[in-house]
Design goal:
A four-stranded antiparallel β-sheet has the order 2-3-1-4. The chain has a single domain, classed as Alpha-Beta Plaits (2-Layer Sandwich). The chain is globular and about 35 Å long. It is 40% helix and 24% strand. It is α+β, with helices and mostly antiparallel strands. The chain is built from four helices and four strands; from the N terminus they run βαββαβαα.
Length: 96
Amino acid sequence: MIVWVLYDIKDDKARTKVAKACKQAGLYRVQYSVFLGMLNSNEKDTLEIMIQELIDEEVDSVYIFPMSKNELDDTVLLGQAFDKQFVTDEVKALFF
């Protein structure tokens, strides 16, 4: 599945660790606090648990949104948007 991870994390260390966890999961950074990529259900669950351990639930916000390939294809990208081709199984393999 395609997964968006968006966050607003107050603590610099926690924010850095969450970004690192997203990158290690194979997600592509599309903005400073926004990641996008292909994860299977187990990978998504693992990332969710890792992030939950890193954040302060009293002040931080993290959103993990699943999305279908068709919905991504229908997404409108304006300006300096990311390349949709980075969000495929073939490209994900290049990052390992």
